Amino acid sequence: MPNLPQAVGFFHEVLNCEPLSEGVSPGTTAVALLDCGDGSMVELSAGTSRTNPPGRRAAAEPVLATRDAVAAAAWLRARHVRVIGQPRRVGASRTVVSFVTPWGQPLQLVSHTRAGEPATHAAAAGLAVQ
What we know:
By secondary structure, this protein is of the alpha+beta class. The protein is 15% helix and 34% strand. It is built from two helices and seven strands, in the order αββββαβββ. It has helices at 4-13, 69-78; strands spanning 18-23, 30-35, 41-46, 63-65, 82-90, 94-100, 106-112. The strands form two sheets. The protein has a four-stranded mixed β-sheet, with helices on one face. A hairpin with a 6-residue loop joins strand 1 (18-23) and strand 2 (30-35).
């Protein structure tokens, strides 16, 4: 991560996440907790990296929920965020978009649709995005 204020700024300005708290945590220099809507919470930390608790694997790419991954991909591209490939359907009811933060962190957005319901293309339909 470039630095904590820049990362918080990206999550707030581009992903519309709301900062809840910032502070110092044991073993790190600084942490920030953000609410990214649709049940997604993000903790950003600068300083010493944390390890996963024993028996728990880290996700290859952190995943955030969104109402419409197709619209979110368009939103990200319009803000010059590198989106990897096209939104893809996973199973019968999920659409996934992979993208990379300005500092190189891969992330995914996932939306759920009801059976038979096509993903909409309405601009910025809720990623935590407006």
